[in-house]
Amino acid sequence: MALLEVKNLGISFGGLRAVDNFNIKIEKGQLYGLIGPNGAGKTTAFNLLTGVYKPTNGSIHLDGENLAGKNPAQINQIGIGRTFQNIRLFKNMSVLDNVKVGLHHQFKCSAIAGILRLPSYFKAEKLMDEKAMELLAVFGLDKEAGFQASNLPYGKQRKLEIARALATNPKLLLLDEPAAGMNPNETAELMDTIRLIRDKFEITILLIEHDMKLVAGICEKITVLNFGTELASGTPEEVLNDPKVITAYLGE
Ligand SMILES: Nc1ncnc2c1ncn2[C@@H]1O[C@H](COP(=O)(O)OP(=O)(O)OP(=O)(O)O)[C@@H](O)[C@H]1O
Question: How far is CA 239 from CA 5, 216, 232, in A?
């Protein structure tokens, strides 16, 4: 059974069919790319998968579970984590606390225990600190754990956002343009990090990306969206040499 199975998904905004008859099947452990020209519907597809938008039609199953009618928090708990095109960190909080926010639902401790500072509260905090530091170390951010998130350089903020999404322990991680605004060195490093987290956490990754070098370099399969609908799907080689895809990108 595929980890993610999306059938005939669609949404309209007024007269605009932003996503139409979108189908995708992602196997466990796969690194999958979603590409397409500007305005093709990629972020809208992510918003449908994460419950931000309710689809007009179609179905989404994660690991066999139907996500229909679930809100973003429930979908996150079922197993989809995401990052955003524009970084959305808690900028005034520390790097460590940003990751701990992602861990909270796994280390539950009652409000009373927190207010009364009971031993169970300190135990949960300690476990969260340890787990958050482990995650930060994977991204080479452990030395900056005490920094305010907004003081990190841009490339590291992007990594921190991925670390926070991973902290929610997702089965499927959605990355929306993870390399946006990065220089070539940062992008190359990010590619290594994405491969590493897929292997280390045995996670499945779907990413939107305009950087074709990154997409072709790390994705095993790609779907191309154009005007909200699938234009092509296949291996990077098949897709990037497909005349329909080349035409869509060149706008001929
Ligand atoms: N909430 C909304 N209300 C109305 N139109 C929307 C809404 N969200 C997205 N759209 C429209 O849907 C279409 C698809 O947008 P979307 O952001 O999904 O594209 P994209 O492929 O992610 O583009 P980009 O690569 O530029 O980020 C666009 O025409 C956009 O203007």
Answer: 20, 10, 6
**Is residue 190 located within the same domain as residue 227?**
yes
Q: Is 41 in the pocket of ligand 1 (CB under 6 A)?
A: yes
The yes-or-no verdict on residue 179 having pLDDT over 60 is yes
Q: What is the mean pLDDT of residues 78-100?
A: 90
The residue behind tokens 């460590």 is 96
ipTM: 0.95
Q: How many whole angstroms separate alpha carbon 156 and alpha carbon 93?
A: 15
Structural domain count of the chain: 2
Contacts of 224 (CB under 8 A, 6+ apart): 35, 36, 230, 231, 232, 233, 239, 242, 245, 248
**Ligand 1 pocket check for 164: Cβ under 6 Å:** no
Tell me which residue range forms the domain holding 183.
1-79+170-252
Is residue 232 a contact partner of residue 42, using CB atoms and an 8 Å limit? no
Say how many C-beta atoms besides its own lie within 10 A of residue 215's C-beta. Answer: 22
